[in-house]
Each structure stands twice: as C-alpha cells, then as structure tokens.
Task: inverse folding
C-alpha cells in the first residue's frame, strides 16, 4: 500500500498546497459577486453584499476563511488600485479650489467623533487613555468605501464628491497625528516637536504632489511614453508611479492609499483611455478582496454579554451621528443637500479604525472587549454608509451617469 | 527619550511592515519593465529582461529579494491570467483540428528529452532512479514563456503557434504521468492502475472542456450576462470560470494554468472586447511577477566546482537539443519552417521542471547539486527560447501583427 498512499499523498498534499490560491479566489470573489448581484436586485448597493461576503465566510458565521497573508496581499493591492482609479477621475485643479471647505470638513470630522468616543468611555468609567484611544479609533474616514460607491454610480465629479475625497485625504493625515498623540500619551509623555515634524512632512508631501507633481507628470509621461518600445508602456509608467507614491506615503507616515490616490490624480489629465481601461481591469479583479477582507475581520462571537452589546450599539450610533453632524455642519454653507451628502459620505471608518484599535491592544491600553467594539463599528459603518449615500444622491445619479457614461465599479 | 524612540519605532516599525507590499511591487515591477525596455531597444524580446530582473534582484546577484509568499501569490496569479488571456485568443474549433499533430509533437517532446536526461546521468555514473528524475525534470514544456512571446508579437493565430499551445497542454498531462511514475519508482514500486486512472481523468477533463465546455459557455454566458445587474458582470463571470477551472485542474491532478487556458478558450468565442481589455489590465499588472519570479529561483552561487559546471552545461545543451529535435522531427510533415518554429517553441521548461526537482530533493533521490542544475536548466531554457522564437518567426511577425493589430503583451 505504500506506493498507493504515496501517490495519494502527493496528489492531495500537492493539490492542497497548489489549490490554496484558486480556492481562495473562487470562494471570496465568487461569494462577493454573488451577494453583490443579490443586493443590486434588492435595490441596495452591491458593495454591501461584497462586505457581507467576508462576514459570512469569516469567523462570525461559516468560518471557512480566516484573514491570511494571501488575502491581505490581494486586499491591500485592491484598495491601492481603487484609490488610484478614483484619483484618475479627479482633476487636481478642481480639487484644489475646494481645498478650504474640505479642510474645515475634515477638521470638524476629526474633532466631533474624537469627543464622542472619549466622552462615551469616560461616562463608562474607563481610564482616560482608554477613552482617548476609542476617540482616536473613531476619527479617520475610510475613503475606499465612499469612493467605490460614488465611482460605481458615476458621481465622482459632483462638488460634494470632490469635497468628500479631499476631506478624506486630509482626514488621513489628521488621523495619523491623533494616533501619534494618543500613542505617545499611552507611553507616558508627548513629544510635540516630533509629531509636528511628521505633520509638516505629510502636509508638504500631499500639497507638493497635488500642486506640482501633476504638472511634472503631465509633461514627462507623454514624452517618455512616446519613446518607449515596451508594449503598454504608458500603463507600466502609471503603475510605477502608483507603487512609488504609495511607498513614499508610507515612508512619510501616511497611508499607502493616499499615495495611490495622489498618483492617480497626478495622471488624471495626462493619460489616455487605454490606461483607464487597463487599471479598471486590475481594479475589478482586486477590489472584492478588499471589501470582503473588511467583513472577514469582524467576529460576532465576541458580543455575548449585555454590557458589551450595549457598548457596541452606543459606539456605533455615536460613530455615525458624530461624523454626520461634524462634517455636515462644516459643509452647511454649501446648502442642505450637499451638507447631507458630505456628512453621510464621511461616515465609513473601515480599516483605519481597526489599525488604531490594534495598536491600543498591543500597547495594553484598551481591553479585548473595546477592540471588538471598534472592529464592529468599523465594519458596520462601512455597511451603513452605502445605502445612505444612495439615498443622499438620489436624483442626481441617473443624470450624470447617463450624461457621460462614466462607470467605474 | 522613551517617547521619541517609541514614536520612531512605531513609525518605522509600522512603516516597515506596511511598506513591504509597495516596496516589492516597485522593485520587481519597476526593474522588470526597465530591463524589458532595455532589451527591446537592443532588439531582443522584453520577456528576457523581465526574467533577468529576477536573477539580478535575487540571491545570485543583489540578494535584495528572496522568493516569498507575497511574490508567489502575484506570480501564480500572473501565470494564470497569462494563460487565460492566451486562451481567449484561441478558437477551440481550430485547435481541435490540429489535435493529432499536437499529440505526436507532445509525445516526441516527452520521450526524447526524458531519454537524454536519463542517459546523461547514467553515463555520469548516477543511480538509475536519480537518472530517471533528471529525465522527468526535462520533460514538461513551460507554456507560459512561449505563449507570452507569441502573444506579444501577435502570432497566436499561426498554425505553428496553435500546435505549440495544444502540444504544451498535452505535454503537461504527460509530464504529470512521468512524474507520478518516477515518484512511485523512488518509493519502491509502481501502481500502474492508479496512474492510468489519473491519466484518464485528466484527458477526459481537457477534452470535455475543449469540446463541450465551449459550447455550453457560449450559450450560457451571454444569456446570464444580459440579466446581471452588477457592474462589469460579464468580466466577473469570466473570472469565476477562470478560478473554478483552475481549481478543478488542480483537483484532477494537472496544473492550474491548464485550467486557466481552458477557461480562456471556452470563452474565446462568447465574450466581447471589454472582457479582453479588462483581462489584459490584470495580465499586464501581474505577468512581470511571474517572469521575474522564475529568475528569482536561480542561485548562481551553487556553481563553483568544474564538475557541477560541466554537468550544468551538458544538461542545458541536452535540454535544448532534445526538445528541438523531438518536437521538430515530429512536426516535420508540416514543412521545415513550421517544424523549426515548433521545435524552438517547446524548448522552455520553466517552473514545471523545478517542481519535479523539488520532489526529487524531498524524496532524497537527487542530490542538491542535481537540483541546482535542474533549476538553472529551467531558467536558462526560458531565457534562450524567446530570442530563438523571434528568429524562427522572422518575416511572419510584421505581416500578421500589421494585419489585425492583435498585441497582447
């Protein structure tokens, strides 16, 4: 029997290892698209179905798939391409005009949620630093979810959409600073000089790329591309810029996706339809892994005592209300309709809040229960925002989409 | 200093982890495309530059990048998309007509290299089973390299190209059987019944998909697509078929890329240009990781004694000559020009030979030195084939490419 068992072992053993990738691809992509189709048929945004695919496949329900490096690679690539693709549709000149309003929206959207989070845990009787961490976890908007919804509906060129995008980028920088501040408080003392330096470098990077990077790229890429011999050279150049700016963003201390967005924006006025189509192919392949990956992180089994369930409900409500009020009020001068759109568009927290909670857990300043609450809040806000966005943009949707047929997702 | 060092640690530590993906993307993709451009300017195929990028970045020279799971994921996805994309350009009806010739080419291309590999190590005085393993490692053609060259030059519709593709698929099944045979010999005895069953299932799978799968897909996909609400539904359906057939191929015991090729071929007559463009985007992003990944595996530091260098040279020459003669003679009835093209097109061994050598090493029947020689042979044949293919197809190239503008890579 030895030879038989060896062959069987070789085939199944080899197959088990070799089948990991296609099995993960089929399960995650297939389930995500199946649920997206189902949600679209129910009149809901498909993106909600794709996130729920992760919740269903993950530890909460079926337990078929745990977050692993393979899926993380695809998810990280997915959100990079998503923001790159969104950047490609944004004209930096238009975005810069809205910079003032966006900054006010971003700042209000940081301060109000931070205050809410802090006050909730303070009222709960938690230590001050724990309350600060919950506040920090409620600060940063996840630009990916809103961008995907707006892109899918062809709404990226709306004024409110552009303000959301710009505010979310500024928000990311502010969120980093809040995190650096509470992290150093957790360690005992605060070095304001270093935090200030980080802030300065991050702001300079974003402004430099948005303002001068665009012009440089607009001049260099067409010239380089004309002399390239390699096939699809323009697309290759665009990808190299995407990877380089993502890396630079991380080195500077902000999220890779901000670099990806800036790379797209820098190329927005310089590249042709071919680069957009090819990027779109990569985006369509990879984004479901980002969306399902968000859902995979939640573990509903953590919510079993009334105490943690009520904390989760309070935090979730506060997360939605605080962003909506903070950003909505800041955008009030633009009129009620746009203020509501901007308020809703800034609601999703996604992976940024999770990272803050992970650091708090690693530093030992927040307990496992608060960590679970933050993850649930992050996932639930990403699930709540798309249907609200759909409502807030009702009416406009069909007009612009019909007008230029611009549909990304 | 504690707070400063913490912040620095958090920033650099967090950045080091977070920057792994964009750093790997930038280094591998950027170097691959830079060298591809260089080689194109030197009048050589860009693919050679992309493989060399892996050799340069890998342990042989710079040692900046070692094969890791992140790169393996992208490389495995890359070769799946490459074969899918190639399948999309192949009409199954045309391919089936050439099935007879392709089978003869594949069989000769298995037997002659196996005999050469066996005889070399037998003459070297190695044990019989070691000689069999070298023979087995020299058997399977790597369809990816040749397909990429032919696709890049717009030559996939040539009769010789179609025979190469079909023969390489058959070759993969035959290579599996040879491997199963020598593996079970290494374990002491051979179960011909089980090997025969595996062969039968594999052949039935390939024939079934190529013959009836195409028709089924051709009817089902357009109908399903028309009723889909989700954006880019046709592309999503195509990807689900790609992942499902790749998985099925592995479960049946053949390579995932054969499933990917069959998925492409099944869709070739049913899907529109949009699916081709979107697949092309994913392919352009991912294929450089497959090509550079091949180069990453070679470690030139293993070749230091005259004995191993001379063995490597003999094996490499035998690998090229045996495939060229075996397949070339089998294709002789098609005329000298096509026989030469087919002989050259079947030369690259790539990752399949490496897998055989890994199993031999794991079973303890081949020493480390022979393993290194096989890996060098696999990488060197992929480097030698593209310039030879370019020569063999000289003259035709411009005609077809100009005629229909079909350029994939």
Result:
């Amino acid at each position: 029997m030895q030879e038989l068992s060896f062959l069987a072992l070789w085939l199944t053993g080899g197959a088990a290892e070799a089948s990991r990738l296609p099995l993960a691809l089929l399960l995650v992509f297939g389930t995500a698209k199946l649920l997206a189709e189902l949600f679209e048929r129910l009149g809901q945004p498909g993106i909600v179905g794709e996130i729920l695919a992760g919740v269903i496949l993950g530890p909460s329900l079926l337990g078929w798939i745990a977050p692993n490096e393979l899926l993380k690679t695809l998810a990280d690539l997915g959100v990079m391409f998503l923001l790159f693709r969104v950047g490609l549709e944004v004209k930096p000149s238009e975005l810069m005009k809205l910079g003032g309003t966006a900054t006010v929206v971003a700042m209000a959207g940081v301060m109000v949620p931070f205050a809410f989070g802090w006050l909730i845990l303070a009222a709960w009787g938690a230590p001050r630093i724990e309350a600060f961490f919950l506040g920090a976890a409620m600060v940063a908007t996840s630009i990916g979810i809103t961008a995907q919804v707006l892109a899918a509906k062809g709404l990226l060129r709306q004024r409110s959409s552009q303000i959301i995008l710009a505010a979310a980028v500024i928000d990311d920088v502010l969120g980093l600073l809040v995190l650096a501040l509470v992290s150093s408080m957790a360690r005992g003392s605060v070095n304001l000089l270093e935090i200030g330096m980080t802030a300065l470098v991050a702001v300079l990077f974003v402004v430099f790329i948005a303002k001068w990077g665009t012009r440089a790229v607009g001049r260099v890429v067409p010239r380089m591309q004309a002399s390239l011999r390699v096939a699809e050279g323009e697309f290759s150049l665009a990808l190299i810029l995407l990877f380089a700016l993502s890396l630079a963003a991380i080195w500077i201390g902000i999220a890779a996706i901000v670099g990806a967005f800036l790379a797209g924006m820098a190329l927005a006025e310089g590249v042709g339809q071919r680069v957009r189509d090819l990027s779109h192919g990569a985006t369509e392949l990879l984004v479901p892994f980002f969306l399902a990956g968000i859902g995979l992180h939640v573990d509903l089994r953590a919510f079993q005592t009334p105490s943690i369930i009520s904390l989760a409900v309070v935090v979730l409500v506060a997360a939605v209300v605080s962003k909506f009020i903070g950003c909505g009020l800041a955008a009030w001068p633009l009129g009620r309709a746009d203020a509501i759109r901007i308020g809703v568009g800034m609601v999703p927290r996604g992976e940024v809040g999770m990272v803050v909670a992970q650091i708090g857990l690693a530093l030992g300043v927040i307990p496992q229960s608060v960590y679970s609450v933050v993850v649930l809040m992050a996932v639930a806000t990403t699930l709540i925002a798309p249907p609200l966005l759909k409502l807030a943009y009702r009416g406009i949707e069909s007009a612009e989409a019909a007008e230029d047929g611009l549909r990304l997702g």
User: Anything to note?
Assistant: The radius of gyration of chain A is 22 Å. DSSP finds 17 helices and no strands in chain A. Residues 1-13, 401-409 of chain A have pLDDT under 50 and may be disordered. Chain A touches chain B through 74 residues (CB under 8 Å).
